[in-house]
Amino acid sequence: MLPASNSKDQRIPTILAFALLPLSGFATDIYIPSLPSMGNSLRATSLQVQLTLTLFLVSYGVSQLFLGSLLDAYGRYKMSFISLLVFIVASVLIAIIPNLYVIYAMRIIQGITVAIIVIAKRAYFVDVYEGKQLQHYLSMFTIIWSAGPIVAPFLGGYFQHYFGWQSNFYFLAGLAAVIAVLEYFYSGETIRHRTEFNLKTIAGLYVEMIRTTTFSLGILMLCFAYSMVIMYNMTGPFIIEHHFKLTPVIAGYCSLILGLAWMLGGFVGRALINRPFFSKLLVNVVLQLIVVGLMILSSYFLSNLYTMVFFAFLIHVGAGFTYNNYFAYCLGRFPKNAGMSGGLTGGMVYVILSLLTYLVVAAIPAKDMAHLSYSYLVFIACSLIVMLLLLKLNRQPAVTDS
């Protein structure tokens, strides 16, 4: 098979690359409406079931810290293709072996394989495109990725209602299998600059990236923004199905609405791409703080599904806006080490948010709208602190990033 970089027509490989970007979202969100039912089926507590999501996020994040450098050294295609096959097997095993500890192990494997796939496909665009075309595609990443959080829980609600929680993982296996067949026939290797896999060199590059102030603080902003989504995914279905006594289908529709909010935030981010960087992000965080304050007040006087989703929608729009702006910036900062910068960005974000969200969910259990609003407040307050620090650093003459 000829490398894709030798082909004049990149349309099909590009479409396949975009199709795989939402895989992490599908792997985390497809079974969100099934969390309460999984707990009942496996005789597990809510925290034990939520741990299946946390383990995926931890393995997905930790893997990205070193897998990016491997992909920069040995290429993208073979590792991502093999990972797709392993992901299929892990998905099937989760469905056919209803044992909590087997599920834990398979979710860790899924996190590692999805990390390889997503990093490889992010790097694909840096390999193949450049200039304004590359910037155009980078700005589309979070919007395309949003297809996962939008579509996955919507489908998952119906899968749970009609076929049970196992059907979600059969679907993941089937989806990955279809894409794997197309990848085999149409995709190939695209790496242009291989870098030697040297731990000392890799550590030095990571240190250089992290010491870049706006890059490292941007990672924190990405973390707090996406933590709001993951926190809702871990708690929302329990509030809807246990507190409001509604069905998994309704939980799926609510996740669909909030996924649209995240995508809308990405579109707003693209529309305002030429506005002053730090100013627009500070305004966004302040607006989120106002909304969460109103949500807290409302939870004591008018607590129902509609008000909860309304306020959550506004907060998720802001989160999507933040993520869109900082993701494009962080990923495009080091084009000669696209795999490593993408791996470090995604890895740090997922490691931090997986631990942070699990701690917040454990400290503020999924009971009602009030608890959800307090959880949002934690992440928004952290975002505000980082934004104030960014503004302070940006006023210093030594800081030139924007």
TrEMBL record:
Gene3D superfamilies assigned: Multidrug resistance protein D
Ranges of residues in domain Major facilitator superfamily (MFS) profile: 13-398
GO cellular component assignments: plasma membrane
Localisation per UniProt entry: Membrane
PROSITE patterns associated with the record: MFS
Superkingdom of the source species: Bacteria
Record's protein name: MFS transporter
Lineage of origin: Bacteria, Pseudomonadati, Bacteroidota, Sphingobacteriia, Sphingobacteriales
